[in-house]
Amino acid sequence: MIVANINLPRILRVGAGASQQVAATLVDLTLNNPLLVTDPFRVECGYCRRLEEQLEAGGFDYGVFADCVPDPTTDSVYAALKVLREGRHDCVVALGGGSSMDTAKAAAVLVDRDAPMRNYKVPYLIDGGVPIIAIPTTAGTGSEATRVAVISDTQTQEKMLCMGLGLMPMAALVDYELTLTMPYRLTADTGLDSLCHALEAYVSRKSNVFTDDVALNAMRSIYQNIRTACEEPDNRHAREAMMLAATQGGIAFANASVTLIHGMSRPIGALFHVPHGMSNAMLLPEITAWSVSHAQARYAHCARFMGVAQESDSDELACGKLVEALRVLCADLSVPTPGEFGIAEQDWLGSMELMAQQALDSGSPANNPRIPHANEIVELYRRVWAG
User: Fold this and answer.
1) Is 70 exceeded by the pLDDT of residue 161?
2) Start-end of H helices in the chain
3) Engineering a disulfide at 249: which of 173, 198, 230, 382 sits with its beta carbon 3.0 to 4.6 angstroms away?
4) Of 10, 49, 8, 20, nearest to 177 (Cα)?
5) Any idea of the CA torsion for 93, 96, 102, 107, to the nearest 10 degrees?
6) Which domains does the chain show, CATH number per domain?
7) What whole-number percentage of the chain has pLDDT above 90?
8) Upper half-sphere CA count for residue 41 (Cβ side, 13 Å)
9) What is the pLDDT of residues 18-62, one digit of tens each?
């Protein structure tokens, strides 16, 4: 009998207005001096100020680090860490997308450590640090419910996967109203990232009965709502569905693991600065097509649950319909090829062996139903380039 080990935030508040409960959450956790970790856009649009007003009304001391960058680097983490230490803050409040949350997580676990971040990438499991409160403003990464952070090493350009209970937020405030201003491209990319989380968690070799149900519900909700959320940004029903599914996807993969798509995606982001969700989407149809033969029943169940295959369809037919539905979805949402994104062919082809090795080093491909060798990953990168 296999016993699943499930890790979740201690407090999970979900729904319109959840982000307005920061002060109450700090009181519940007996925390007094938070550092708000965010990015310039969240300051400009007023989201950060809303949190500051809550803290001021509650009489809290607090600090602000607002210099998070997309695809966070060790340099940005160390800058946040300096502010965290100098202010003697007893927790971090991460406001933003995955980049702000991962920056805050990394700083939180490094606060009492002297070694560089690269010392704590997988297979090391990092614990300790100050508590993390996560407030996502995009419906995608699911980082508010994971014990995972991805940080690019400024020196080596490696996109490092870091894991451990120290990276799990103690509280997550999931407020879909914060996503109403998300533009089309960000909505599409983060939504497809969530879809990858859910699909990969379901077919992962580490899947379990708990994550299966969460992942399936996330997949169906994303597939049914992502086009509407992109085309009708003010559609509150679609936005709420996408936000909840993003958190569900995070819970699923944090407790079952991602697989080959994410393993191959991270090097693309590190070397070519492709946004994380977009690089996953570039890979999604091709890697799924390559993998289905080794978990046909599970991929077929995904297809039926999402509504792209009939209950009467054979598993083989359902898998074919799933791959085609993913190709159509990515086309509908204008996911670019690597070349269309602006990557030069010689740069892509010349980096394939390095990317393959970095993918394998992350450990994620080993969770895939079909476990690849390095030469097979190189060939998959070649297929993705060819479109």
Assistant:
1) yes
2) 22-28, 40-44, 47-57, 74-86, 98-110, 184-203, 209-231, 236-254, 260-272, 276-291, 296-306, 315-332, 338-341, 345-362, 374-386
3) 198
4) 20
5) -40
6) 11-179 (3.40.50.1970), 193-386 (1.20.1090.10)
7) 95
8) 14
9) 999 999 999 999 999 999 999 999 999 999 999 999 999 999 999
